[in-house]
Amino acid sequence: MVAEDRQAVVDNVLAQFFRAQLSRARTLDASYVDLWRSLEANTVGGKRFRPRMVSLAYDALGGIEVEPPAYVGAAFELLHTALIIHDDVIDRDFVRRGAPNIAGTYRDRAIGRGLDTVTAEHRGASAAVIAGDLALFNAYRLIDRSGANDVVRDRLLEVLDEALFASAAGELIDIDYAGGDEPPPVHDILRMVRLKTAVYTFECPLQAGAILAGASDAVVATLGDFGREIGIAFQLVDDLLGVFGAESLTGKTTLGDLREGKRTVLIAYATMRDGWAEFEGDFGNPDLDEAGADRIRAFLTDCGARRYLESLARDYSRRGLERLSAPHVPSALRDVLIPVADEVLERVK
Predict the structure, then answer these.
(1) DSSP assignments along 64-129, one per residue
(2) Any idea what the Cα angle at residue 302 is, between residues 296 and 307, rounded to 5°?
(3) What pLDDT was estimated at residue 331?
(4) Span 217-222, mean pLDDT?
(5) Using an 8 Å Cβ cutoff, are 54 and 83 in contact?
(6) Does the reported pTM lie above 0.90?
(7) Distance from the CA of 283 to the CA of which of 8, 162, 184, 316 falls in 20 to 30 A?
(8) Residue 170: C-alpha distances to residues 19, 60, 87, 175, 189 (Å)
(9) How far apart are CA 344 and CA 275, in angstroms?
(10) DSSP percent split of the chain into helix, strand, coil, nearest 5
(11) Interatomic CA distance for residues 142 and 342, integer angstroms
């Protein structure tokens, strides 16, 4: 089944899911309907990256069914939605993909009704937390509805649980690092990156697709290894785009990470270079403007931090590809995953 058809089936699963939830919400309250509509809107327009990882592994390993991988992929899409909604609350971001996110939508409505900014932002964040909770819980329900037999379903639920469990740990570590007095070493940040992003974006979706296709334990384990390395490369590129990217393409402001004082590998490298002390007052300043951000960006380029991050991302991508050389990895699986590694790095070209 071609990728476009797989995505269409995932989209249909999500559409059916939201229709059912909107029907239930109408029996309770109009404001609840609005929240579900906002939640649905936050699942529209994404690249369906995690469902694609599920289907790539499933198809390459001989899977032929239509609905089971679509439901599993939709479950990972809802998990992703929940995590980014909550992440935006944590980061105090009110825009996602170039438009107001749930927190931003409810904040703007509150301001329109005459509430002060602080109260309106709290109202927006509160609505976002509720929406994220709903998406999180229903990710598990979609696994239950996948049609997989009991043994496979239990394994899929374990994989989804691992994705959430690791991501929550990574998010907490990220919070602890932000604004800390001492910058964490690069290897600690890489560990956080793996937990927060690589596990639920690559490792677990790939493994879920393999489990659903009946792959051997060795193949499932190798896909986890590949996903770990590529997932770290993916987040390194994301961190680079978070400072140097175009908001029109990434959907997120390039001021957010600098204003938040987010401890990334990019920053960890820069703090070890002569001249960083000049920027310590600006980094983590919630009022940082574009001019100040441009000065930081110039230093990150001149001190070699940007070049270092690009090189490190390429290195992790290479490590991921090396995992696929194991003799038990079918050539069909190798052939579909090599372009994934290329795609991860392509974003910074």
Answers:
(1) --SHHHHHHHHHHHHHHHHHHHHHHHHHT--EETTEE-HHHHHHHHHHHTT--HHHHHHHHHHHHH
(2) 100
(3) 96
(4) 97
(5) no
(6) yes
(7) 316
(8) 33, 30, 11, 9, 10
(9) 31
(10) 75, 0, 25
(11) 31
